[in-house]
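Section 5: illustrative case.
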């Protein structure tokens, strides 16, 4: 059986194919089940053993030759396609390179670092503690007894009867006083805190706090006021005024709320509810009971403490009306805070 004419015809068909689709059509014609080769392989069972051996070798050589033609044609068409793409889409090497997106500091981190830098310059230390805290440090040693409303299971994330997610960073102050037993101390305690608040525009079950503690032999309310005045002016501007209002906290006595003058220059606006001032933090002179429970002699030391919510400060500074923007990872929002610390 002479298969050379069929092979020549196949070569011609492969050479005339101008696309991968055409080549596969030619392949099916010569190598498919209904091709000449396919029919020959099906009839092989009717041959004698001697004929089968002869025609088997012939069919196999024919198949190999066709596959070589197929691979050669496919490579030719692929090379043509690549050449076409390179011609049509020439790379202009004079164009500028790609701009890679650069991240930026999160606004809450910016505020935290700004406050940390201020107090580091004043000689404070930065102290951190565990977010899973024991009840004794989170409440009891801060003059919050067992029956205090703040210890309600519905207000805090309790893990068991003695452990919970800290509701403030005050336990770091307790731990520091217990460990150092020093009569002179200046620390700030930044970190995450947790309470069972429903998430809305002004509340979150997780939020950032920065608390400060100063202990010394002659610490008084004047020292606290001067520190808070400097803090407010550093964050909001030198033109801002502060005022202290009496308040109540179990761990300080006396206690105050710090208000800072509004951006409306005390003329009254919706932001300050037409009062001219905005509340930003709580503070006070450390309660003597707290010193006693932390192993310090309340007759020999005095001190002041304060605590602020980073989200609240950021919302006031950046004129925001929704706390949730800090946690949605929306790049349109975060890109507004490029640069900084």
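Designed sequence:
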């Amino acid at each position: 059986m002479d298969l050379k004419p069929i092979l020549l015809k196949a070569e011609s068909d492969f050479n005339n194919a101008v696309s991968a689709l055409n080549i596969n059509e030619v392949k099916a014609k010569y190598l498919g089940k209904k091709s000449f080769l396919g029919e020959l392989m099906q009839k092989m069972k009717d041959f004698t053993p001697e004929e089968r051996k002869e025609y088997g070798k012939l069919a196999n050589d024919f198949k190999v030759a066709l596959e070589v033609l197929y691979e050669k044609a496919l490579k030719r068409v692929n090379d043509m396609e690549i050449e076409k793409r390179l011609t049509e889409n020439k790379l202009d090497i004079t164009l500028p390179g790609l701009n890679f997106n650069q991240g930026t500091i999160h606004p809450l981190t910016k505020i935290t670092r700004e406050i940390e830098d201020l107090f580091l310059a004043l000689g404070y230390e930065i102290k951190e503690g565990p977010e899973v805290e024991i009840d004794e440090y989170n409440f009891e040693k801060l003059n919050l007894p067992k029956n205090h409303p703040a210890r309600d299971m519905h207000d805090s994330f309790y893990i068991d009867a003695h452990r919970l997610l800290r509701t403030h960073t005050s336990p770091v102050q307790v731990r520091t006083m217990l460990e150092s037993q020093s009569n002179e101390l200046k620390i700030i305690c930044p970190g995450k805190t947790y309470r069972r608040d429903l998430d809305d525009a002004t509340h979150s079950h997780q939020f950032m706090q920065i608390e400060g503690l100063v202990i010394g032999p002659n610490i008084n309310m004047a020292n606290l006021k001067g520190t808070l005045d400097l803090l407010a002016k550093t964050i909001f501007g030198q033109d801002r005024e502060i005022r202290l209002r009496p308040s109540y906290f179990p761990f300080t006595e006396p206690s105050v709320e710090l208000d800072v003058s509004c951006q409306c220059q005390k003329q009254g606006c919706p932001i300050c509810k037409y009062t001219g001032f905005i509340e930003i933090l709580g503070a006070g002179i450390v309660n003597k009971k707290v010193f006693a429970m932390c192993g310090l002699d309340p007759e020999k030391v005095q001190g002041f403490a304060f605590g602020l919510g980073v989200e609240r400060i950021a919302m006031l500074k950046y004129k925001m009306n929704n706390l949730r923007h800090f946690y949605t990872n929306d790049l349109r929002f975060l890109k507004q805070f490029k640069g900084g610390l």
